[in-house]
Amino acid sequence: MNKPPISQDHSSAWVIQTWLSFIISISATSIGIIYLPVDVWVKGFMGMGLTFTIGSTVSLVKTQRDLHEGKKITSRVEEAKVEKLLSEHNVI
pTM of this prediction? Predict the structure, then answer.
């Protein structure tokens, strides 16, 4: 009845691709903001917007991961309780 935990390891290629994607997107957007033909105040406002977007995205991802891991732990505890009840019930 014991199931081995599902491995969620990522390949090194996937990790590199996600980091490169993140770095390239932030760099391209930052360079775009720097070279916009607008006032420094507008560039600053757009830079703050980019910074807050990155921060809120990181917070959202962390929250979603924590919720997912919490559900996994809760389901494991519930499964252990059920197995214990079944093993106690089947004692002859």
Answer: 0.64
Q: Quick one: angle between helices 40-89 and 12-34, nearest 10?
A: 160
Kindly state the tokens that stand for 56: 């809120």
Q: Under a CB-based contact definition with an 8 Å cutoff, are residues 50 and 33 in contact?
A: yes
Q: Any residues with CB less than 8 A from the CB of 54 and at least 6 apart, and which?
A: 26
Written as six digits, the tokens of 29 are 């957007």
Percent helix / strand / coil, the chain, rounded to 5: 80, 0, 20
Question: pLDDT tens string for the chain (92 positions)?
Answer: 455 555 568 899 999 999 999 999 999 999 999 999 999 999 999 999 999 999 999 999 999 988 888 877 777 777 777 777 777 776 65
DSSP state of 5: P
Instruction: Convert 18-33 to b/e letters by CB count within 10 Å (16 or more is b).
Output: eeeeeeeeeeebeeeb
